[in-house]
Design a protein that fits this description.
Structural class: alpha/beta
Mean pLDDT: 95
Low-confidence stretches: none
Strand order of the largest sheet: 1-2-3-4-9-10-11-14
Distance between the termini: 14 Å
Number of helices: 15
Number of strands: 14
Largest sheet: 8 strands, parallel, barrel
Order of helices and strands: EHEHHEHEHHEEEEEHEHEEHHHHEHEHH
Radius of gyration: 22 Å
Shape: globular
Strand content: 5-15%
Helix content: 25-40%
Length: 432
């Protein structure tokens, strides 16, 4: 029997599915819709909600922001940190993970924010570690272009080493609250880090109290070999793109091998595969929904513009009905490789139409999709799934279909939890 697996949700603080027939048309910018979403996820006992982020308005498609803004692709969006704080205040067990780029935050500031968020959430906060993969993002922070990808990872290695030291700059028992001596914190247990590296330096210590988890849970998406190495050394949970049972098993096994070589227990890392379930009352209903999505007039353009925002490639320059030539990028090479399916012989149009199959086509009734998910986990070995929607356009209907349709079908099969057993996010990830 397949052991229980983990569930999380991947989303943006963005416009949502604003033009869907079942959309209320409400503006999501006060965060209320996403708070309701998080509450529904908590009732369904998800591990965490992951708030993705980017730091630019992409002009990758034909050199302008037209497609980005017309299709609401990664823009407009609001900063995930305030929303994460609101969600944490309105939930009690759900993990809340926010994306913060090593490009944008000085290490001390990020460590301080993470520590504060972990305290505010009672130990349920996670940091999604990204280096940013777009020159337009770099230009918003005073750079002409991003450093080369390998250098970005070298910088990220040093960055994480520094913030780890900052998180540990307060010993667990530094706060003594000794009324007799009038001492709140013992200065002998709060330490400067005096970090001096190739890219960063910081005196420390943090001026925040040590948080419930000591450090937040670390989440990371590593696609390239260097990215997988970074994730295997640091992440508590890894975001991975699904690529059929064989490809998913290979990815998980590779990360676990790298983790063991780095001296970590592979079971301490939970690899969650990104999937896009399309649910219906009947198989025919679900297939009709899927066809309506991929055959929408602007779907191909939107799908190609969307992958362009993270790879920094203008896919409009290529023939839709020809195979994509081999490409490399200083953006997200892993995302490019997954999208391109090198050597498959598929045309660019076919690749775009399959953009949200997620490498694991989950189209059907809740029971049928639950069965597929269980079979996939049995074949792969674990650890779970990261639910999302095309273009991260969230609607209340999509949330209900998953939390009140798919999740109960999974629970009936004993594939996901029915109640939380732990308080902190890292403990929740390690339940099984």
């Amino acid at each position: 029997m397949t052991r229980p697996f983990h569930l999380a949700w991947f989303m943006n603080f963005s416009a949502g599915e604003w033009n869907h027939p079942f959309s209320s048309g409400e503006a999501p910018w006060d965060g209320a819709m996403y708070v309701d979403m998080a509450r529904a996820m908590e009732r369904a006992c998800f591990d965490y909600i992951m708030l993705e982020d980017t730091l630019m308005v992409s002009e990758a498609w034909r050199g302008t922001a037209e497609a980005t803004l017309r299709h609401a692709l990664q823009a407009p969006k609001h900063d995930p940190l305030p929303l994460a704080a609101i969600i944490a205040s309105q939930t009690s067990r759900l993990g809340v993970v926010a994306t913060m780029s090593t490009l944008a935050y000085p290490p001390f500031l990020l460590a301080r924010l993470c520590s504060t968020m972990d305290s505010l959430s009672g130990g349920r906060f996670g940091w999604n570690i990204v280096t940013s993969g777009e020159d337009a993002a770099a230009q918003n922070f005073g750079l002409e272009e991003l450093p080369p990808r390998e250098q970005r990872y070298a910088m990220a290695d040093e960055y994480v080493a520094l913030v780890r030291q900052l998180f540990d700059s307060w010993e667990p028992d530094a706060v003594v609250q000794d009324r007799a001596t009038g001492t709140y914190a013992d200065y002998r247990k709060v330490h400067p880090v005096n970090f001096k590296g190739e890219f960063f330096q910081c005196r420390g210590p943090l001026n925040t109290v040590r948080s419930p988890q000591g450090r937040p849970a670390f989440v990371q998406a590593g696609g390239s070999p260097r990215g997988r190495e970074f994730a295997a050394r640091n992440a508590d949970s890894i975001i991975a793109t699904a690529n059929g049972h064989e490809g998913m098993k290979w990815y998980r096994d590779d990360v676990r091998t790298r983790a063991a070589a780095a001296g970590r227990d592979p079971d301490s890392i939970k690899v969650l595969f990104l999937v896009y379930p399309v649910l219906g009352v009947t198989q025919e209903d679900a297939e009709a929904k899927y066809r309506a999505m991929v055959n929408a007039p602007d779907f191909i353009e939107a799908a190609l513009a969307a992958i362009g925002t993270v790879t920094d490639i203008d896919f409009s320059q290529f023939d839709l009905d020809a195979e994509l030539p081999r490409l490399t990028t200083n953006g997200e090479q892993g995302s490019l490789d997954k999208f391109a399916q090198w050597g498959s012989g598929k045309t660019l149009r076919q690749l775009a139409s399959e953009r949200y199959d997620g490498g694991l086509r989950l189209v059907g009734t809740p029971d049928a999709v639950a069965e597929q998910m269980g079979e996939a986990m049995e074949a792969i070995g674990g650890d779970g799934f990261l639910i999302s929607t095309p273009f991260q356009r969230v609607s209340r209907r999509a949330v209900v279909e998953v939390t009140e349709g798919l999740v109960p079908a999974l629970q009936r099969r004993g594939l996901v939890r029915r109640c939380y057993a732990s308080r902190t996010l890292r403990e929740t990830l390690l339940e099984f």
